[in-house]
Amino acid sequence: MTALWLIFSGAFLAATLLPGGSEVLLAALINQAPETWVSLVVMATLGNTLGSLTSYYLGALGRFAKTPEEMASGRYRHGLRLVERYGYWSLLLAWAPLIGDILCLLAGWLRMPLVKSSIMIFIGKGVRYLLVAALALHWL
């Protein structure tokens, strides 16, 4: 139970705007108890998805503070083009370093549909954690 809470909270924090990676933690926990890999992957995916939804909501709140011109310039420019071009499908990349947090933030700022956005974030992050788990199990 402690391992599930640990991976959930680690994955949640890693998905917010705080630095950190939960993949190493997941691999280490799978190494300690390989029979729990499914539960660990589910909890990591849920925690990381909820962390990204925190960024989504921060983006929605930021809509009151940032103008479209401010968002179209600087560090958001590339992410904004991706989200505007591919819509909620771009959130399959929410797991990606550097741009993933920005994609979720922009999805909220653009008021993309919450349910569709959540599903895409969940799928992208779930696939990533399944790959990490497969690699961890392979090297046991």
TrEMBL record:
<feature type="transmembrane region" description="Helical">
    <location>
        <begin position="86"/>
        <end position="112"/>
    </location>
</feature>
<dbReference type="InterPro" id="IPR051311">
    <property type="entry name" value="DedA_domain"/>
</dbReference>
<feature type="transmembrane region" description="Helical">
    <location>
        <begin position="118"/>
        <end position="139"/>
    </location>
</feature>
<dbReference type="GO" id="GO:0005886">
    <property type="term" value="C:plasma membrane"/>
</dbReference>
<dbReference type="Pfam" id="PF09335">
    <property type="entry name" value="VTT_dom"/>
</dbReference>
<keyword id="KW-0472">Membrane</keyword>
<dbReference type="InterPro" id="IPR032816">
    <property type="entry name" value="VTT_dom"/>
</dbReference>
<feature type="domain" description="VTT">
    <location>
        <begin position="22"/>
        <end position="134"/>
    </location>
</feature>
<feature type="transmembrane region" description="Helical">
    <location>
        <begin position="37"/>
        <end position="65"/>
    </location>
</feature>
<keyword id="KW-0812">Transmembrane</keyword>
<keyword id="KW-1133">Transmembrane helix</keyword>
<protein>
    <recommendedName>
        <fullName>VTT domain-containing protein</fullName>
    </recommendedName>
</protein>
